[in-house]
Description:
four-stranded antiparallel beta sheet
Amino acid sequence: MRLEHLTGEEEDFWRGEFARENWIFGALTLSVTLPEFAGGTPLLRQMHFGYYLQPLHLNADDREDLPRKLAWVLAHRKPPLDFLELSGAGLRIPHAFPQGFTLSSVLRIALQEMKRIPLRDESARAAEPEKQE
């Protein structure tokens, strides 16, 4: 497995792509204080834990069910993306993948599958084209 991180420009691109589907996308980092091994002086560092997707739909059923539905659909694909995790009200995408997957391919597949999942409040998707005109 190899670790992948998006550049700031790539993160902005994916934020825009997922925002069109009314989902938020972001990087997960944790600020930690680690003692420096050489001198024992504590230093503030950041640990990267992957990326996060969360729906922003107004219908509570859509907001709560969509991450579970997306995780199920992705885990049952051929080949499966069964390394994604449900986390809180969203889906965590790690930054390390099995061979054959890249971060970009996982995000592209998730976006494609997300568009196919029916919403309980279809008016949310129907209103999208009106915004673009």
